[in-house]
Design brief:
The structure holds two protein chains of two kinds. By secondary structure, chain A is an all-beta fold. Chain A is 0% helix and 53% strand. Chain A has no helices and eleven strands. In chain A, the strands form two sheets. In chain A, strands 2, 4, 5, 6, 9, 10 and 11 form a seven-stranded mixed β-sheet that branches. In chain A, strands 1-3-8-7 form a four-stranded antiparallel β-sheet, with no helix packed on it. The relative contact order of chain A is 0.31. In chain B, strands 2-10-9-4-5-6 form a six-stranded mixed β-sheet, with no helix packed on it. In chain B, strands 1-3-8-7 form a four-stranded antiparallel β-sheet, with no helix packed on it. Chain B is an all-beta fold. Chain B is 0% helix and 48% strand. In chain B, strand 7 and strand 8 form a beta hairpin. Classes of the chains: A mainly beta, B mainly beta. At the A-B interface, strand 5, strand 9 and strand 10 of A face strand 4, strand 5 and strand 9 of B.
Chain lengths: 118, 106
């Protein structure tokens, strides 16, 4: 079965850093683009970042550019989101998701909570 | 590209036919997906490429497009359909979502 499992969330002070991980299994991770999507408490979904299968194409939403870095290790079937300069408005559940052909996110992890607070 | 979803809230009864609209600020060439999300859960894809039903999704869900306006229709609401629905465009980055439509039981 296809599975995506996020980890690395937690409580961090404003200005701090955190590294999220997304471990994939049940499919050939190296041929898929993968994404991070977040959801602040009581709010809608916000697309954060994506990385192509060979890391050639990397994109970010404007609010995280220069602070977040997405990466992947196909040998480890894993994707990462290095977050620095964290702000209160980065508080959210962070989901990783696989992009399938036809342009949709067809499998999602369960999410990991990131809380930025002093 | 901005996506404007309407309505933000929708109250309906089991058996009703409901329609949710997502309007794009410019052409997106059918690269639009619809998701359903229940509280505390990850979203689930229902429709992609504007009108293609994701495998395993009941046929009461359908999608259509007319220019820059996209529609998700549920033909006969079932109790398990009460949730929040989002559209997402895949034409250009950022691959943003609509604001969501919360479908509640009347």
């Amino acid at each position: 079965d296809v599975q995506l499992v996020e980890s690395g969330g937690g409580l961090v002070k404003p200005g701090g850093s955190l590294r999220l991980s997304c471990a994939a299994s049940g499919f050939t991770f190296s041929v898929y683009s993968v994404h991070w999507v977040r959801q602040a408490p009581g709010k809608g979904l916000e697309w954060v970042s994506s990385i192509s299968s060979t890391s050639d194409y990397i994109y970010y939403t404007d609010s995280v550019k220069g602070r977040f870095t997405i990466s992947r290790d196909n040998a480890k079937n894993s994707m990462y989101l290095q977050m620095s300069g964290l702000r209160a408005e980065d508080t959210a559940v962070y989901f990783c998701a696989r992009e399938a052909s036809g342009s949709r996110l067809d499998y999602w992890g369960q999410g990991t909570q990131v809380t930025v607070s002093s | 590209i901005q996506l404007t979803q309407s309505p933000a809230f929708l109250s309906a009864s089991v058996g009703d036919r409901v329609t949710i609209t997502c309007r794009a600020s410019q052409g997106i060439s059918s690269y639009l997906a619809w998701y359903q999300q229940k509280p505390g859960k990850a979203p689930k894809v229902l429709i992609y490429s504007a009108s293609t039903l994701q495998s395993g999704v009941p046929s009461r869900f359908s999608g259509s497009e007319s220019g820059t306006e996209f529609t998700l229709t549920i033909s006969s609401l079932q109790p398990e359909d009460f949730a929040t629905y989002y559209c997402q465009q895949f034409t250009s980055n950022p691959y943003n979502f609509g604001q969501g439509t919360k479908l509640e039981i009347k």
